[in-house]
Amino acid sequence: MKKILLVDDDLKNSMLLKRFIEAEGYEVVYASNGKVGLELYRDVHPDLILLDINMPEMNGFEVAQTIRETDRRIIIFFLTDRTDKVDRLYGFKLKGNDYIPKPFYPEELIAKINERFESDITSQDIEYLLGNTLFRPNLASLTYKGETHSLSVRQTEILAILAKNVGKVVDRDTILNTVWGDSSYANSLALNVQITYIRKLLTDPSITITSLKKKGYILTIN
């Protein structure tokens, strides 16, 4: 499950926004000022930060500047009522990924968050050679003997976890919590279905995904 850090001193509206984002399947951690936000960034390692600018202790620009000194990859969205050109340009100078004026529609913010995470997945250029099969997570594809099969987002995420751990048992709950965010019974059944689909798509006979009862899965190359 992707983790989002929301840093804003407007408690009432932040709680409403937090619930809205959580309803979309994200984990949201809240900080009421910039100083706490910076501490939580270091503690919880979020995937994306929603950052107000006008806050006590440290303003959003100061927080972003501090983070960018050591972290160029974290996604930062500024959410603010400071809409003049100078502020917007400064936000982008600090390598902010987006600058969203208040007020905004929560649905629009969710669309931007979803799009950003999806583009991050497709921008990854890691490739895995599994036996004679080329697995490209960035293209969500498997290529074997010139024939290419497409994978869904979930299938890509699952196979990437197994491909990173060839020959090692991957705990079932690890996959469930990484891909779905929790290890509920319904998600466990969904994992079974996705593993079945992945096995069918892996036409290379040298590749095997074995289910180990009460343990997890192991991908092996013969």
From TrEMBL:
Gene3D superfamilies: 3.40.50.2300, Winged helix-like DNA-binding domain superfamily/Winged helix DNA-binding domain
Keyword DNA-binding carried by entry: yes
Top-level taxon in the UniProt lineage: Bacteria
Post-translational modification 4-aspartylphosphate, affected residues: D52
Keywords: DNA-binding, Phosphoprotein, Two-component regulatory system
A GO molecular function held by the record: transcription cis-regulatory region binding
One Pfam assignment: Trans_reg_C
Recorded GO CC terms: cytosol; protein-DNA complex
Domain OmpR/PhoB-type: 125-221
Keyword DNA-binding: yes
Position of the signal peptide: none
DNA-binding region(s), chain positions: 125-221
Segments forming domain Response regulatory: 3-117
GO biological process: regulation of DNA-templated transcription
Protein name per the record: DNA-binding response regulator
Species assigned in the record: Phocaeicola sartorii
